[in-house]
Structure formats: structure tokens, C-alpha cells
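Handout, page 2. Input:
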Amino acid sequence: PLSHSIVRLPLLVVVRRKMSAAMTAMAAAPIRAASSRRARRSKAASKASKRNIARPAVSDPSMVSPGVDPSVFTETELTASQMQDLASQRPVANFQSRFGDDEPRKGADILVEALEREGVDCVFAYPGGASMEIHQSLTKSKTGVRNVLCRHEQGEVFAAEGYAKCTGKVGVCIATSGPGATNLVTGLADALLDSVPMVAITGQVPRRMIGTDAFQETPTVEITRQITKHNYLVMDVNDIPRIVREAFFLASSGRPGPVLIDIPKDVQQQMSVPYWGPKVSLNGYLSRLPSPPSHPQMERVLDMIKDAKRPVVYAGGGCLDAAPELKEFIESTGIPITNTLMGLGCYPASDELCLDMLGMHGAVYANYAVDSADLLLAFGVRFDDRVTGKLEAFAARASIVHIDIDPAEIGKNKEAHCPVFSNIKPALRTLNSIIRADKPELDFSEWRADIAKQRAKFPFAYTETDDYIVPQHAVELLCKMTEGKAIISTGVGQHQMWAAQHYKFDEPRNWLTSGGLGSMGFGLPAAIGAAAARPDAVFVDIDGDGSFVMNIQELATLHAENLPVKMFVLNNQHLGMVVQWEDRFYGANRGHTYLGSPDKDYAVTQDEADIFPDFVKICEGFRVPAERVVRKADLPAAIQRMLDHDGPYLLDVMFPHQEHVLPMVPGGGTFKDTITTGDGRTPETKDMKTL
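Output:
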């Protein structure tokens, strides 16, 4: 039936108009079919009663036992039948509906109850004509599902990402049709690239109007097909329980990602008695989930480690939920580890075996280790271009072990000598058990000493000043004053790299950033999502003036929800990262990268009245406390005031736009092309020497 698949909306207007009547007629067929199924079930139950056979009422399988964590599907050997049964169970057991068992209710009420049965406690939703039914139902939520009302749909989808990144749970956002749905697009693409579990729900025009160019109609399923893990157009109200269960399972299992559910308004309004017991229809997907790795596979990995003299672990976002297993492996082998931008925190940065971040703006000693290694253990990574630079030269001396949950990533960019299609957690558990039993004599002390020399020679260094603030010092001071325990979000640009370099993370899921897509404006909404999820933590959005202004409207959300997010804005009045490339590769010619006032440049006048825009005054309009700091001596006290304030607070930190993020490997370059010196103060004569 049409409702059991993703409906591909016709693209041509003429075709859409011819199809609209047919689609409406087809959409009605599953409703009749569902009614027939219910009638058959009722008839069968009547026959059973006549035979005096005790038969329980049809209900949600989770009424008996709650669903299992999606990781079970990749950590345990299961039959196809077992996988389908377990995937069909919802997380919440013994759910008590606010409706009677046979009481008809709107499709929107069924949707909200489906979210409640998934254990959803918070959504990020902005209402509109095609989604207002859902909002009406949310106000009557049995479990009190909270809606954080962001002031823009991009804000809400980034907030849902922040919620998911800091908890590992599925983030939920809801938008109306047309512009509401299209405003989610950037966040959906961001979540797909960073493997973030998310369910996005959008309203759609009524079924009879699909394809007629109705008011606020867009083909949401078509628009989002390539930037979601899966998506649905709901044409039958009776499919809502199954589709929501499938969406949450798809979003959180295997390699996580965003799933979109598009629901026409008339489906939201249609009355129905939901059937909570349907099995998920995901046989093909379930069959492609990886099984736990075999002992022989992991024994081969250990043999390669035994033969190596210079091994290094290259760990990414896939390791965030395997931090204990990763720590045991590193401690038992003594192999140094470097993290990707997405993997920060999966291994403690304070440990001496941690080489910090690698890649374009990674540590010289981390890149040196990969360049010199004879064995690269790639765990939960995808060999992104910002890590590898020139692919042919990346880890050119090393044999490569690549363990990943997504088979499409294995061999996609870099060929692996030992590919392992597996979830990282069971793979490391198996490997650790083999190591405990085998007790190999591993000694990589000479290799670690060699790397230590590079660390001493090329630390994350910067120029110390007495008067003005340098951003690296500001981030280090913030890290010290929060004891490295804050949840940090960022926008995208120089400030993002300085935060990654100088804020040290010892725990996973405390670092929220847009990695693969590099979405400016991510920092503030992501912090809002994290604050809604983990209210007892300290939240700091380390942002840049360019990124911050892209979702500055979310200051209203902070005030309305009283979320204690601290905003640490590193303000240089420019698009700093693009300016850095202009300084390095374009003779410092400014290609529309200046963001300050066109008539008075603060960098020239040094008059605070010339700072533009004035974030302190803007915050005043949103009733959010704020202050500005321009001198290094004033910074510690200003940070303390920000951290001590009970509620949201913005600290505008001014610094010169000539500061550069170093080290830097030019795009497509190699380790030997690394730039370690120079800045934008004297672009004609700056030191451009590489290693």
C-alpha cells in the first residue's frame, strides 16, 4: 500500500495536479484496509471466546516489558525474528494513556502519545498552520512533554542536535509545512554528517491538496531525501504508531542519523483508535546491522599490534559510547591515541597517552605520530579530508585497521589492510578480553618518547601579552575556571578550533560542535538543547561574533525558558577563519569578511563605542545580562561573574583580528606542509615556513 513506503512526490506541476486526485483515492484505501484488519481481529477474538480460550487484548508489546537499547542489535547475536520483536518494543513499559482503550482520538493525539511511549521528555517545536494540531495535543501531554519554543526552526533543529549530542538520546524537533520544514534542512544535513540521532516531524498540507501548489506546500520528503537516514509521508492515520516506532529505532540504531516524518494536516485531524502492537517493517535494514566481531578477526588485530613498533590509535565520534572500553585498551597496550574533532572526550585529554586532536588544525605531535606510524588503528572514523589532507600521503607508512559500524565508510577514502564491520563497543570488548587472556608483552616506550620530543618542540603555543586579550589564553582560562567540566558548544570558525585545542575534555558528550557540515550559528541553539537535557551542568557557548549573530534570536529562548547558558563570544569584528586564509593565501585582500561598522573601525579607533554590533545592548533588549571585556587583566573577574550568575549571561571578549589558528595544514596538503608561525599583522613579511 502507498502508506507503507516513502511516497515520492511528483516534481512537475502538471504531473502533480493530475496525480492529486489519484493520491487522495489511494490514501483512503489503507484506511479501509486497516478497518478490515481490525474487523478480522475482532471476529477472531469472538471465535476464540466461543471456544473458551483465554486470549489477552491486543496491546503494545512494551506493556509487558520495555524495549531494549538499540546497541543490543550490534552487540548480540540475534535471529531475524528476535530482532523484529525487540525493535517493535517501545522504551516505556506499562504506559497509561489519557484515553480509553477504544476511545477515538485525533491523529495528532496518537502522534504525541507515540512520542510519550518512546520516552520523549522534551521537544523543540515552532507552531504553524500545518502543525498546530500537534501543538494542541502537546499541551495535553499525559507525561508532560516539554516544548522549548526556539524562535527559528533552524534554532530548534540545532537545539535537538545539542540535546542528542550531550545525551546520546534521540532529539526531537517539530515544524510546520513549507518554510518551516525548509528551515530544518541545514540541521538535518548537519545531523546526517555528524551521525546524530534525531526525529524531525513536519506538518504538511492536507492530502487532497498535495501537488496543487497550495499555500505553504513544499515536497518535504523529496527535499530531505538525501540528507536524512530515512523519511516518511504519513498517508494513513493508522500507520502513525508503527512509523514513529520505526523512526526512533532507525535514528538511534546502527550508525545514528536523522529521520523525518511528514504528516498532512487532515491526517493529524482524523479520528482513529490506535493499534499499538504492529511489528516494525524493517527486515532489510535489520539484516544489514553488523554482528559482533569474531575472535579470529580481533586476534588478527592483536597480531598486527604485536608486530608494530610505532602504533597509534585514531579515534572518532564512533567511540563516544565506548569510552570505558577504549580507555581499557589504551591502558593495557600503552598505545598513544589522537582524536578527531568529533571524538574529543572519548579518551581523557589529561592522560599522557592522549595526543589531542589531529588534522588541519590539530597538534603537530598528533600529525607526526600518524605520519610516522607503522600501524594506524582507526576506530569509529571516516578519514575526513580535514583530517587526512592529501589522502595518498596520510599514514603512508602504516598498515591500517579500520573498525566502523557503517560498511560504506570502510575503504571509501582510505583502503584498510584489516577492515572490521562492527560497532566499536563489542569490538573493543572482544579485543580487550583477548588481551587479558593473552597477556602480550608490549613495549612502545621508545615510540612514545619520540612523540614526546615533538610535543615539547611544537606545543599548542601562542604569544603571551600584558594588555590585550589573545583568544587562546581566554579559552585556557575558561577551562581552568570551570575545571574542564563544562558542556561546551561552539559555532564554526577560529573560535571553534581554539576551543578544540585549548579546552581539555576528560569525558565524552561534553563537546558539542558542527563537524562535518561546519554550520555557523550552531553554538547557541545547541547549548539550549543541552541545557534542556542536563539542567544541573554548566553550559558555555564559545562562539565567534560571525557565528553568534546567525541565530542571535535565540536569546529570547534563553530568557523565556530561563536556561543558564553562558555565552563566551570571541569578537574580532571579522569572519576570522576566512580572514586567516586571506592573510595566508590571498595577500590579505579582504573579500567581504569585515563585519564591523563601515564608517568606524574599532580596530583602528580602539573606542568601545565603535564596536558593531553591540552585543551588550542587544542582550539588554532580550533581558539577558551581558558585559564586555577588552583588557587581559579584567578577564578573570569577568569570567567569574559570568559563571556565578544564576541564569543566562553573555561575555563579549574583544581580541585582534590578526590572530591565527596554528598549527595549520593547508587544504590538500601533507604533514610536511604544516604552518606553525606567523599571523596577520605583517602579511607581506610574515613567516610562512613549513616544517
